[in-house]
């Protein structure tokens, strides 16, 4: 799931992309338009743990003001 945060008053244009791949969660994040965003990989012992981690991370970002965007609307590739 891709989430974006835009605040023109503080010049903040960020994104986070959270994906569950098997029993791991891959998170890419950074400023919108950056060529090589940071990437973090978290490994878990089960798919259920990975899904729970991803849900918590997504909810945290949504609570901070990020909004969901459609993957097709973005030019960044995973």
Question: Got a strand count?
Answer: 5
Radius of gyration: 13 Å
How much of the residues is beta strand, in percent?
A: 35-45%
Low-confidence stretches: 73-78
H-E order: EEEEHE
Mean pLDDT: 90
Structural class: alpha+beta
**What general outline do the C-alpha atoms trace?**
globular
Distance between the termini: 11 Å
Instruction: Give the biggest beta sheet.
Output: 5 strands, antiparallel
Strand line-up of the largest beta sheet: 4-3-2-1-5
| Tally of individual helices | 1
**Portion in helices:** 10-25%
Describe the structure.
- The chain has one helix spanning 47-63, and strands spanning 2-7, 12-21, 24-31, 38-43, 67-69.
- The protein is α+β, with helices and mostly antiparallel strands.
- The protein has a five-stranded antiparallel sheet, covered by helices on one side.
- A hairpin with a 4-residue loop joins strand 1 (2-7) and strand 2 (12-21).
- The chain is globular, with a radius of gyration of 13 Å.
- The N and C termini lie close together (11 Å).
């Amino acid at each position: 799931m891709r989430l974006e945060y835009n605040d023109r008053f503080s010049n903040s244009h960020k994104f986070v992309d959270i994906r569950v791949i098997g029993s791991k969660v891959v998170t890419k994040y950074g400023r919108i338009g950056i060529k090589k965003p940071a990437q973090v990989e978290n490994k878990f012992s089960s798919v259920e743990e990975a899904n729970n981690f991803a849900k918590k991370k997504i909810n945290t970002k949504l609570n901070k003001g990020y909004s969901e965007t459609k993957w097709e609307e973005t030019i960044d590739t995973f």
